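This section describes the prediction task in plain terms. A model, or a person checking by hand, is given the sequence of a single protein chain and must write out its three-dimensional structure as a string of tokens. No templates, partner chains or ligands are provided. The sample shown here is typical of the held-out split.
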Amino acid sequence: LCVEVLVSASLCAGFLVTYAAVIAAMFMLAAAGAVFKVSGGRWFWNLGGCEYHLFWATACAIVALPS
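The expected answer:
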């Protein structure tokens, strides 16, 4: 929870955006892996799947790209 709060505050405030986005993407990929393992390979979030986490990991990775 602490990581989520810190990176979201940093992204919203525009402070160290690239680093916060990289950390958030790695955190969301780890969460997606954990959810995938626990859910037995389900995809959709309403069935307990990991697509929500992968979407946000992708969005954070795109934000982290150098401009």
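For orientation: The radius of gyration is 13 Å.
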